[in-house]
Amino acid sequence: MPDQSERSGSRPWYRILRLPLPLIVGAVLVGAFLIVALLSYVWTPHDPLKLVVPDRLLPPGSRDYLFGTDKFGRDVLSQLMAGARNSLYVSLLSTSVAILVGALLGLLTAGAGPLWRNVLSRLIDVGVALPGILIALVLATSTGPGNQAAIAAITFWFIPIAARVTIGPARQILALDFVEAAYAYGRTKWYVLLHHVTPNIAPLLIVLGSVMFAAAILIEAALAFLGIGAQPPTASWGRLLQESQPLLEAAPTLMFFPGAAIVLTVLGFNLLGDGLRTVLDPQQASRSGLI
Amino acid sequence: MPLVESRGLHFRYPSVRRHGAVPWTLENLDLSIEPGSAVGIVGESGSGKSTLVRVLCGLLIHQEGEVIFDGRSLDDWLSNKPRELRKRNQIVFQSPRRSLDPRMSIRRSLSQPVRAIERRVPTDTELIGWLERVGLTDEVLPRFPHQLSGGQLQRVGVARALSVEPDVLYADEPTSALDVSVQAQVLNLLMNLRVQLGLALVMVSHDLAVISRVAEQVIVMKEGVIVEAGHMTEVLSRPSDPYTAALVQSARAVSLRA
Amino acid sequence: MLTIRDLKVAIGRHTIVSIERLDIPAGTRLGIVGESGSGKTMTAMSIVGLAPNTAVVSGSVRFNDRELVGLNDRQLAEVRGRDIGVIFQDPAKALNPMMRIGRQVAEAVRLHMDLPRDQVRERVGRLLTRVHLADARSLMRRYPHQLSGGQQQRVLIAIAIACDPKLLIADEPTTALDVTVQSGILSLLRELSVERRMGLLFVSHDLGVIQTISEVVGVVYGGQLVELGPVDRVIGQGRHRYTRALVSANPGIADDEHLGEVVGRRLDVIPGSVPALGSFPSGCRFRGRCSSEITSCAQLPEISVASDGHIFKCWNPIDDIAGSRGDHRAPR
User: Fold this and answer.
1) Chain B residues near residue A196 by CB distance under 8 angstroms
2) For B37, which residue in chain C has the nearest alpha carbon?
3) C277 at interface of A, judged by CB pairs closer than 8 A
4) Which positions ≥6 away from A142 have C-beta within 8 Å?
5) Closest CA relative to residue C242, chosen from C216, C272, C214, C266
6) Does C326 contact B at CB distance below 8 Å?
7) Alpha-carbon distance B70 to B150, whole Å?
8) C52 has a chain A CB within 8 A of its CB
9) C282 to chain A nearest CA, in Å?
10) CA closest to A8 among chain C residues
11) Is there a contact between B201 and B217 (Cβ–Cβ < 8 Å)?
12) What does the DSSP assignment read for C203-248?
């Protein structure tokens, strides 16, 4: 049934694009994050790593330093921008690999015969049950801490989750008549998984991607905070938080800025995921009961 | 010579449980379908009628007995000429909405069988010809399933199945998801096409009224077994099996008397 | 018992039900027939004042001199629990899967009257026996999934009649059931209706079923009651073009001696399909699919009276007597 409010004219101004509000807010926040992160590759107000000892612990709004400086006199704004870059790098790599591998694993499981499906399902369940933070610790101790350890930990953490989320919807689609019709005109299981199932679960994967991205940003920050992730001098939101901890009373804003950056970015990706869910779903999927 | 024949056919769905505990879904079925005939398979839910057509056209593999299509066993067809088997056996499904991929345009869905079986892309003239055969126009080609009505989608499903010019068209409850007024359109279409193209029509239905209008031969199924088979008029007017008699009586009790 | 005047139900901008005038005497078995999207369920529900919250209802529905339009949710729930019982298409979804049958029926009994435990139990047993469920004792201890679809529907009927309703609404109650089970449920409903003088409002897409169960039938198309009358007159001598077309599109099962003649014979069709909500033509809603349109059809048809209790809304109706099955056949 068509949404009445969309046809009957009076729409709040922000509905002009006919898009749900969460999607717009999410897209703006995510857009800002991406611009800042990409911009940091070519320009930051100062060199984020340059120590200017006389200028240390300047409050926000000081001349030349919009967000102030830290205890070594490094520009906070520049460090935040570089931290965004690090978040983007770690999260993008880990999330996309996890979704790609996880979805493939999920599709294989859904398409397998009853025996293999059960075996793979149980293995994936075990994977979901593994505590991700312990994997990260093990990786960090065996390969040494750093971004690589964070990326590997997040990827392994997310692969079984992505697989688990894929199996159910993929099996629902495999049970539909058009799949049987495809077999009836001689398509193989591989063709069906690739050309019928994948497009139909793509919206789900996109939503999953944005939610996982949000989680990855949080985990990256957490790992850096714990000293397992990004190592000095690499700028990372988690490390900025950790370094600001002893100075909580002397310079509270040092904690505020990376904290706010994390909250806004994570919120942005979650809202985006939420909005995408409603936008990608309705016309085709929900009407026929898919997904 | 019959086009499709089964002898001592047994089928059960694959299950992780070892054999023995799993009961047969289809048990010891013997039947034959002549070229160009109209056969109705009637039965209630759980009778195995839908499973039967999937076994007959080689979508499900039976465990015991044999199915013979055009003089050769299905195993033979599947291992030596699978594409020809697909080409000559096509199927139309119950739910028109579920039988077309919601994310494929009608053009793409309709091209699929020829692309898969004949390994070529059908021309526009061919596509339009198939659509005209089922009473549709080229207007629907760029559309997506959610933009069409149930009746139109079922026509697309029929057009798709007939695009490879099969010898047998299996129709699994092709009208039970449709309104009465649209059901009449689709039944007429199937009857017309059967005569025009000379194909055998095997229609599965729970609705004896529908079967009585379409099928010359009827197979009555119950719990995976054929309880009666023969000429439709004889089976309906002089059922020899008590279950068939009960079925006919109940169906008559609720069928429209105008 | 039920008196309806100028009932209009709208959702958003679309009027989905409109009935000018309808009186249903107590104990009548009324069938409402229509295709999917015709608004038959909505029509049935609004007739008894049970349109969903999102709908805007105007006009008047009086049930035993009580106005139902404008009652709040609590008052409606009270009417529903006491005077109106409802059964649905899918019995498996209407029963609580986690609760034993006995308790589900007992709850319906207790809702209606305050009885000691053993009397409730006895009444539950009697209700289950009344709907022809054998071995009520052991049935009460079972869970819904252990019952067949027909048994589940019988349990729902027992729950619905637990409070001795004056009206039972049945929304496609046999559509999900096998045909051999279907006729049993239909005769049970007829029996109960006669025995308790309980009105029955039966909604179905299946004309044959409607013919079997009802005394009076209403034909719904595009949210409008296009014809209403005694079942034999409406099905045998319907005046509205849509009614007749619907009857002749129905395959039916011929008599034994005619079986051979009709096999392979093409059915009469109604061209096109039911338009989506909100895209019906103005005037008569059957316009565009009707084979006998005249210019007046662009205006909303008024109510015509065919005979006592038989009304229809058609500008170019089929003649009363000459109305054979041939003159409305769609060109093909």
Assistant:
1) 101, 104
2) C264
3) yes
4) none
5) C272
6) no
7) 34
8) no
9) 20
10) C13
11) no
12) EES-HHHHHHH-SEEEEEETTEEEEEEEHHHHHHH--SHHHHHHHH
d(CA C251, CA B181): 10
CB proximity list for A197: less than 8 A, separation 6 or greater: A107, A110, A111, A170, A173, A174, A179
Q: How many CB atoms lie within 10 A of CB C51?
A: 23
Residues of chain C with Cβ-Cβ distance to B184 below 8 Å are 249-251, 267-270
> Which B positions 183-242 lie with beta carbon below 8 A of chain C?
183-185, 187-188, 191-192, 206-210, 212-216, 232-233, 236-237
DSSP code for B257: -
B46 CB near a chain A CB, below 8 Å?
no
Model pTM score: 0.84
Residue C113, Cβ neighbours under 10 Å: how many?
12
**DSSP of A217-261, one letter per residue?**
HHHHHHHHHHTSSS-TTS--HHHHHHHHGGGTTT-THHHHHHHHH
Crossing angle for the helix pair A114-129 and A147-174, to the nearest 10 degrees:
140
Q: What is the ipTM of this complex?
A: 0.88
Positive or negative, the CA dihedral B36, B42, B45, B48 is negative
Is B117 within 8 Å of A186 when comparing Cβ atoms?
A: yes
- For residue C115, count other CB atoms closer than 10 A to its CB: 14
What are the start-end ranges of the E strands in chain A? none
The minimal CB distance from A182 to the residues B82, B112, B157 is found for: B112
B125-175 per-position pLDDT tens digit: 999 999 999 999 999 999 999 889 889 999 999 999 999 999 999 999 999
Per-residue pLDDT, A18:
67
Hey, which residues 160-219 in chain A have their CB within 8 Å of chain B?
176-178, 180-187, 191, 196, 199-200
Instruction: Read off the pLDDT band of C217 (50, 70, 90).
Output: very high
Packing angle, helices B150-162 and B106-117, rounded to 10: 20
List the one residue out of C88, C122, C83 whose CA is nearest residue C105: C122
Average pLDDT over residues C212-221: 93
At residue C261, the 3 state secondary structure works out as helix
Flag whether residue B40 sits within 8 Å of chain A, measured between CB atoms.
no
